[in-house]
Amino acid sequence: MKLIKKYIPLAIVFTFGVLTLASYYVPHKVSVDYTELVSQWENIVYAFAFLLGLISLFYSHYNKIARKADGWGYSIFVFVGFLAMVIPAYISGGKQGSETGITLLGWSFRYIYNALSSTMFAVLAFYIVSTAYRSFRIKSKQAFVLFVAAFILILGKVPLGQIIWDSVLGWTKCGVSDVIEWIMSVPAVAGKRGIMIGISIGAIVTSFKIIFGIEKQYLGKD
Predict the structure, then answer these.
(1) 160-192 per-position pLDDT tens digit
(2) 3-state SS of 98-139?
(3) Integer Cα distance of 45 and 92 in angstroms
(4) Cα separation, 7 vs 9, whole angstroms
């Protein structure tokens, strides 16, 4: 039993991990065919994982409604929202537009999905303002730099900011749009690349830990 539950999955992960990693560095038709085959199987696994996640989501909210748990009324809208998009998509054949105008799916997407998305982001705006207030409290040199960069970006996005910049710093012969372009092209890009390098290194390390059996959480609690 231990062989089936532990060592066989580790052997499968190690084998396919090494083969997939090597296929990107071996310029041969066999490696190309292998990569395409693995991609097809990945799509199949993604489809089943999506179906499993959908069933789990519905089952969780159904139990919440059946038990009348706190906030169970919101769970009803999970099913309503799902049906409000799936049924029009099935009727319209997955097309949002036709020769005569928008389809039922297009109408649902425009007047239901987009409206709900706008509402959600409008609510998130209050959380963003709250987070910005906490982030811009100047307690260190790094926080001061963040505050100055954010303040310049805010100035450049409103007409009043342009007027304030010209009246206060017009003598520098440098417009606020030029400063914003420099901030977005140099410091912001440098920080983004540093973050992406860190994420890439972390992904590589995690992949090797999974391939060589150091990370075993995918095997379950046992």
Answers:
(1) 777 777 777 777 777 778 888 888 889 889 989
(2) ECCEECHHHHHHHHHHHHHHHHHHHHHHHHHHHHHHHHCCCC
(3) 27
(4) 6
Q: Find the helix or strand (DSSP H, E) in which 47 lies.
A: helix 29-67
pLDDT in tens, 122-163: 888 778 777 777 766 767 777 777 778 877 877 777 777 777
Q: From CA 96, how far away is CA 88, in angstroms rounded?
A: 9
Q: What is the rounded distance in angstroms from the CA atom of residue 177 to the CA atom of residue 75?
A: 46
The 3-state DSSP class for residue 212 equals: coil
Please state the separation of Cα 43 from the chain's center in Å: 19
d(CA 105, CA 88): 5
Cα distance between residue 158 and residue 22, in whole Å: 52
φ, ψ dihedrals at 103, nearest 5°: -85, 180
| Interval 61-65 mean pLDDT | 93
Residue 191's identity, in one-letter code, is G
Whole-structure pTM value = 0.59
Tokens of 218: 């995918």
